[in-house]
Structures are given as structure tokens and as C-alpha cells.
């Protein structure tokens, strides 16, 4: 290809255009969900900028702990929380937000808003200091209470099967946003010089099987017998162990290449560590839309009843055959122990 042809290449489909096109597929769509997704993408760009500068902020410690607006400098997960909430509040489509970073429900004041958002603004944030990929995970529900009032606990504690959209942003060697509205999964890569996400991974389909298992084996002393047997099975089958310790990064790799991510019950976290509303449900929706599977080892993640907005649950997620294999080992443990 000569230089002229290269220059004439189309730049591709931007996230905004893609969202608009998808909206046209639904004749009665009002555009509110589209706007909401764009609000999230905008906040993601801002958070991406903050993350990229985080090393420099440490170096700039000599300037004191205040940023240019005179605000005290805060940890990035707090900043990310503020950014996403602000974007969702300003957008107007969301009545209520629940966030891993906030103990209480957040009412945006937009009582006409039709949507509820559950968000983990910056997952794996302990990895920031060592320049390892981190992510944002979000989930969108339609409210069940009437518009014109504040969102209720019933709005916030819906089962995962009610999600209308879910996605994540991975801040890694490149920044990507991956999302589903229940009609397949699409991935967009951020082009920093243009300030846009471009469609780079259309219709992601996850491999039915894989040869990667991702689990913190440091906790293996407290694995159940079924869980321990599954890990032994993976080793005997010569699978590769890959565990970044940053859920979005581990999940993203396995989604594209095949594999299973597990956060099982351990003595330290008897219910697993990950949160049903902010981490497990959104990734479960995505993996299922890509042809994979997610459960707590026994029950489909998206059918678990959330008892509390911060509830935790075990997570077995990834390629269908591997998740089913792990479930077989867990079922076997019940037979042996009964
Ligand atoms: P966080 O929400 O406090 O960031 O914790 C979630 C993170 C996940 O990204 C990661 O997969 C997991 O915790 C790692 O936990 P562990 O260090 O116990 O293996
Ligand atoms: Mg988290």
C-alpha cells in the first residue's frame, strides 16, 4: 500500500456512531440508554487521563498534595468514583447509583431518570502503584419503581438477568471499552490522539474451551476439596496459570483467548471476595453474550438473588467447557461429603 492509499484509509467506527447505529435498530428507543453509555465513555476518558498521569502525580509530590483546582489530591479510586458519579448525574438518565466505593445508595436527583447503575469505578486499584492494568466495571438496570420518585432498594437489588447493559473499561497497554446491551459483545479501543474509542473487536465470541486457569493459588490451603481437585485437574492437563490479580485484566484475556477465572470461597473470604452487583453480574452478562458461562460454582451468577447491594459471591467465569468442568468437580465434592 502506498502512502497516498494509507492516508485515504477510513479511521473506523467511533463508539458514539456505533451506539447511535444500534439505537436505530430499535424503533421505539428514546436514546436515553445511548446517552447513558456515552456518559460512561466520557467519564472513562477522563479517568484514563488521570490514570496515565498517576506516576507523574507521585513525582509531582513536591508541589504538595493539591491539584490545580486547589482540591486535595485523592486516591485514584476515589477520583474515579467522583468522575463516574458526576457524569451519570449530569447526564440525567440515571435516578440512582450504587457504587462499590459508597456505603449508601446515591440518589442523583434526576427522578425522571429511568435507569439504575451499579459501578465499580476502579477495580484492582492496588495495582496502580505498580503500573498493572486496572478497570472500571458497570451494570445498567431499568428502574422498577415509577418515574418521578427516587429510586428504591427494589430498583437496586434486581437480579442480573434484568440487566439492560453492562460493560467494562480496561486501562492497560491500550485502553478499551467492552460492552453489551444483550445483543452480542463489542470492544472499542481508545485512540488518545483523537480522543475517541474506535470499534476494534466487533462481535466478540469467547472460545468454548481454553488452557488457562486464573485463581489466587496462595489461598489453596483453604480451597474446598472440589476446588482443589479442579486445580489439580488443570495442572495434570498442563494448563497455564495466569493471575494478574486485576479482575478486568484477567477476565479480558480469558474472554479473548479462552480460560477460566475463579474467585472461590476461602477462609479469609467465605463467600468469595467479589461483589455480585459491581463485578460478578456485569461480567456474567458479558461472558454469556460472548458464548461463555458464569456461576458461583452451582448456580448461574445472573440468577443469584442479591440480598444486599454490597453482597459477595464466589465467581467461576469464562469458557463454557471449563466452567462446567469446575462445576462437575464441585458437584462431586457434595456427593463425597454427603
Ligand atoms: P477490589 O475491588 O478491592 O479492587 O478487589 C477486587 C480485586 C480483583 O480485581 C482481583 O481479581 C481480586 O481482587 C484479587 O484478589 P486477591 O488478591 O485476593 O487474589
Ligand atoms: Mg472491585
UniProtKB/TrEMBL annotation:
InterPro entries noted in UniProt: FBPase_C_dom, FBPase_class-1, FBPase_N, FBPtase
Assigned keywords, A-Z: Carbohydrate metabolism, Cytoplasm, Hydrolase, Magnesium, Metal-binding
Binding-site residues, Mg(2+) 2: 120, 123, 279
Cellular component terms (Gene Ontology): cytosol
Binding-site residues for Mg(2+) 1, renumbered to this chain: 100, 120, 122
GO biological process annotation, one example: fructose 1,6-bisphosphate metabolic process
Domain of life of the source: Bacteria
Chain ranges of the Fructose-1-6-bisphosphatase class I N-terminal domain: 14-202
Cofactor: binding details: Binds 2 magnesium ions per subunit.
Alphabetized Pfam families for the sequence: FBPase, FBPase_C
Enzyme type, top EC level: hydrolase
Catalytic activity: beta-D-fructose 1,6-bisphosphate + H2O = beta-D-fructose 6-phosphate + phosphate
Annotated positions binding substrate: 123-126, 216, 243, 273
EC number: 3.1.3.11
Major location (coarse): cytoplasm
Molecular function terms, GO-annotated: fructose 1,6-bisphosphate 1-phosphatase activity; magnesium ion binding
Alphabetized PANTHER family for the sequence: FRUCTOSE-1,6-BISPHOSPHATASE-RELATED, SEDOHEPTULOSE-1,7-BISPHOSPHATASE, CHLOROPLASTIC
Protein name (Swiss-Prot/TrEMBL): Fructose-1,6-bisphosphatase class 1
Organism expressing this protein natively: Hymenobacter telluris
Amino acid at each position: 500500500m502506498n502512502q497516498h492509499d494509507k492516508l485515504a484509509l477510513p479511521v473506523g467506527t467511533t463508539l458514539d456512531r456505533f451506539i447511535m447505529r444500534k439505537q436505530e435498530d430499535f424503533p421505539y428507543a428514546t436514546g436515553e440508554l445511548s446517552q447513558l453509555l456515552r456518559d460512561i465513555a466520557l467519564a472513562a476518558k477522563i479517568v484514563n487521563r488521570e490514570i496515565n498521569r498517576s506516576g507523574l502525580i507521585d513525582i509531582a509530590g513536591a508541589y504538595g498534595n493539591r491539584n490545580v483546582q486547589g482540591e486535595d489530591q485523592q486516591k485514584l479510586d476515589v477520583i474515579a468514583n467522583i468522575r463516574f458519579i458526576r457524569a451519570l448525574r449530569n447526564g440525567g438518565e440515571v435516578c440512582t447509583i450504587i457504587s462499590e466505593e459508597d456505603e449508601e445508595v446515591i440518589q442523583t436527583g434526576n427522578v425522571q431518570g429511568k435507569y439504575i447503575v451499579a459501578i465499580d469505578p476502579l477495580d484492582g486499584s492496588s495495582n496502580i502503584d505498580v503500573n498493572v492494568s486496572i478497570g472500571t466495571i458497570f451494570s445498567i438496570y431499568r428502574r422498577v419503581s415509577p418515574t418521578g420518585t427516587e429510586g428504591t432498594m427494589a430498583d437496586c437489588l434486581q437480579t442480573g438477568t434484568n440487566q439492560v447493559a453492562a460493560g467494562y473499561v480496561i486501562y492497560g497497554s491500550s485502553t478499551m471499552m467492552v460492552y453489551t446491551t444483550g445483543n452480542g459483545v463489542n470492544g472499542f479501543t481508545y485512540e488518545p490522539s483523537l480522543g475517541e474509542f474506535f470499534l476494534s473487536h466487533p462481535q466478540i465470541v469467547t472460545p468454548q474451551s481454553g488452557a488457562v486457569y486464573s485463581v489466587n493459588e496462595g489461598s489453596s490451603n483453604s480451597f474446598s476439596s472440589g476446588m482443589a481437585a479442579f486445580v489439580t485437574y488443570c495442572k495434570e492437563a498442563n494448563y497455564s496459570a495466569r493471575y494478574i490479580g486485576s479482575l478486568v485484566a484477567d477476565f479480558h484475556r480469558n474472554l479473548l483467548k479462552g480460560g477460566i477465572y475463579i474467585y472461590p470461597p476461602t477462609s479469609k473470604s467465605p463467600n468469595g471476595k467479589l461483589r455480585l452487583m459491581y463485578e460478578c453480574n456485569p461480567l456474567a452478562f458479558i461472558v454469556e453474550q460472548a458464548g461463555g458461562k458464569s456461576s458461583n460454582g452451582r448456580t448461574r451468577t445472573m440468577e443469584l438473588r442479591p440480598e444486599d447491594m454490597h453482597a459477595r459471591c464466589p465467581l467461576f467465569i469464562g469458557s463454557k467447557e471449563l466452567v462446567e468442568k469446575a462445576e462437575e468437580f464441585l458437584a462431586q465434592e457434595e456427593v463425597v461429603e454427603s
